[in-house]
Amino acid sequence: MTGYTTVPYTIAYANELVDEPILFEWHEYELRLTYRHPHRSDWVNGILRARSLDLRDRPKARGSERMRKLNVLRQWKCMNHLLCQVCGAPATDPESGRIPWLLVPTVFERTGEESGRTNAPPTCWNCIPKALKECPMLQDQAMLCTVEAALSAGVLADLYRARTPAQPLLWRHNVFVAWDAIAYHPVALAVAQVVELYDMRPVPEKDIARTHPSARVLRPQPAQLVGIPPVGVDQPGAPDNVRPPVTSPPPGISQVGR
Ligand SMILES: [Zn+2]
Q1: Which helix (H) or strand (E) element contains residue 183?
Q2: Which of 72, 122, 186, 209 has the highest local Cβ count within 10 Å?
Q3: How far is the CA of 121 from the centre of ligand 1 (A)?
Q4: How many independent structural domains does the chain possess?
């Protein structure tokens, strides 16, 4: 049992999961990852993306929900269009123009005083009470902020080495690969899009009570954006642009694994 009353928009269903073997091929004088029967849409900015189906609107075909799995296509869509990861509607506050974002340390890496990277899509104000209520991780570690902008920064990916072209070996799991870290693009299999958040402002609890009273009864943690340790940046041997900052569980969905 999941304990969730609704299935978050980014959660995968059983029949959406695609386990497609990957292999290396020679491409433009270098080895790159591909599928046995590739489509042009398998690559995003030169990085192979994990395949997935989107059957959310077909309840009879999609199978049961897999609360520990993310749907890659819907996660991507949420980041591209700033959609709420719980309901799939636009997350931007129409009055302020700012985007509410619920974060936990495991999906966030600070990059500056008021900026940071995450693979967790935003959560709209309407869904924040529900997310706080139903996700134990958020109840313990929630950080609520609003951001001015979120720009695509790269991907969360698994990196592979080629033992032989037909035998990719997993080299690094769940690392951040920047869009400009092109040396790693041929060996990366993207599992989520990562965005960088700008002008992050913690939401004081008194403001939550005033502007979003329904959120207060759920005792959201006061946002504590100062002092969040960067996740994994000191891992030995990590190249500058290939860091393991953000792991899978997004806000509103606890312990999502792959
Ligand atoms: Zn929502």
Answers
A1: none
A2: 122
A3: 11
A4: 1
